[in-house]
Specification:
By secondary structure, this protein is α+β, with helices and mostly antiparallel strands. It has one helix at about 25-30, and strands spanning about 10, 40-45, 55-60, 65-70. The N and C termini lie far apart (about 35 Å).
């Protein structure tokens, strides 16, 4: 696992994501909606509608990694979508 400080960029996908999506679905969002390469040296962070779950996708040169975090009693502060 790479340390967080070793990534060149961190990208937040502002729109809520259907959390049934896994690596393949999230990498399509990175390519098509964010217009970025999922193979970049970056973290791609996604949040669900209720803002109580996060998924973080990254490529580590051997394959994709997916982190998942679920809050039990709180919500993530998440930026609003641009108008």
């Amino acid at each position: 696992m790479k340390p967080l400080t070793s990534f060149n960029a961190i990208y937040l996908h502002r729109d809520p994501v259907d959390f049934r999506k896994s690596i393949n679905g999230l990498s399509v969002i990175v390519e098509q909606q964010m217009q970025l390469s999922p193979f970049a040296d970056a973290l791609f962070v996604f949040c669900n509608q209720r803002r109580d779950k996060l998924k973080v996708l990254y490529w580590d040169s051997t394959g994709f990694c997916l982190w998942y975090k679920r809050l039990e009693k709180d919500k993530f502060k998440w930026p609003r979508k641009h108008s």
